[in-house]
Amino acid sequence: MIDSHCHLHCINDIDAVIGEAKEKGMKAIVTSALDTGEAEKALVLRERYPGFVFVCLGLHPSDIDKFTDEQLEDYTGFIRKNRENIVAVGEVGLDYNWVTDKNRQEKSKEIFSRMIELAHSLRLPLVIHSRNGSDGKSAISDTIKILKVYNAKRVMMHCFSGNESNLKDALDLDYYISYATNICWTKKHPYLAEKTPLDQMLLETDSPWLDPDSPLDKRELNNRPWKVEKSAEKIAEVKGITKEEVLQATTENAERFFRLEV
């Protein structure tokens, strides 16, 4: 099993969690950090658990106002400096749920474009965050359009939440679709997963968020990397195959996409 996207620095008792993940047979964990402070913590974990913890560095689109232009330059410089210590640029993208002002949305598009160019220059894949607004504006459609403009090739659609049309567009571009553990309780995601080829699918928890074992009305921060197995069970059910087939395919896909040496 590989968790293709989580946030280890947000989990209490990180070392105990990583130890339990190994005991449960996990092959690797890919953690995402979104600023310099988070990045430094993630890189320490990478050094402590070589060949098991891998790191992505990016900028969440809802955090665009946290960075001045100078700070953004410093952070992108930090990412460049750590090119050999990371496996992807991400999560980056567009979020119209949290970024609702039109001017801020345009600014987020500019920063997203810069992050795509950064990934290109470093020859690293992109981990994409895209979330639509409650007003119906499609950040996911806009995200895919921008990726096409820049001819982005190695792309993971993290915690995919698009519609069937978005799914088709992403699959036609050979992007990987990553399903998080919310697939365990939604109706939409199992439907989309059934239409996603196994060779373009990844599994993630986005932990500590999206815990499949918390009450529906109170999603506590108790999700853990090994719970990708629960997602695999749901996907196996809708595809009419075994959980083991899902886990094997998504593990191989993660190794290939991130070029992991595990």
Please give the CATH class: Alpha Beta
Give the name of the CATH architecture.
Answer: Alpha-Beta Barrel
Q: What distance separates the N and C termini?
A: 12 Å
Number of domains: 1
Strand share of the residues? 15-25%
**Computed structural class:** alpha/beta
Strand order, largest beta sheet: 1-2-3-4-5-6-7-8
Helix coverage percent:
40-55%
Q: What's the CATH superfamily, by name? A: Metal-dependent hydrolases
Number of helical segments with 4 or more residues: 9
- H/E series, N to C? EHEHEHEHEHEHEHEHH
Mean pLDDT: 96
Question: How many strand segments?
Answer: 8
| CATH third-level topology | TIM Barrel
**Rg over alpha carbons:** 17 Å
Low-pLDDT residue intervals, each spanning 5 or more residues? none
Largest sheet: 8 strands, parallel
What is the general shape?
globular
Q: Explain this structure to me?
A:
The chain has a single domain, classed as TIM Barrel, CATH 3.20.20. Helices cover 43% and strands 15% of the residues. It has helices at residues 14-23, 36-48, 69-81, 102-122, 139-149, 164-172, 188-194, 228-239, 243-258, and strands spanning 2-6, 28-33, 53-57, 88-95, 126-131, 155-157, 176-179, 201-203. The chain has an eight-stranded parallel sheet with strand order 1-2-3-4-5-6-7-8. Strand 5 (126-131), helix 5 and strand 6 form a beta-alpha-beta unit. Helix 8 (228-239) packs across helix 9. The protein is globular, with a radius of gyration of 17 Å. 45% of the residues are buried.
